[in-house]
Write a structure and sequence with these properties.
The structure is a single chain. The chain is mostly helical and 58 residues long. Helix content is 59%, strand content 0%. The longest helix has 15 residues. The two termini are 25 Å apart.
Length: 58
């Protein structure tokens, strides 16, 4: 089954955002027990944070 173009576009955009936060970013946060504020801001500012929240409980 072929994926709808808008789904592909969303997937590629989120992938690019995630790629901009390399392994060292996550390792540093993990080591220091810090919240990923910059990542959450980026994903929120791009409008994709809402995609992670279901409309109703699963």
């Amino acid at each position: 089954m072929q994926e709808a173009q808008h789904v592909t576009d969303i997937r590629e955009s989120v992938k690019a955002i995630c790629a901009s936060f390399g392994e060292s970013y996550w390792q540093k946060l993990d080591k220091q027990s810090e919240y990923p504020t910059a990542f959450v801001k980026e994903i929120t500012d791009s409008g994709f944070l809402g995609c992670l929240i279901p409309k109703r409980p699963l």
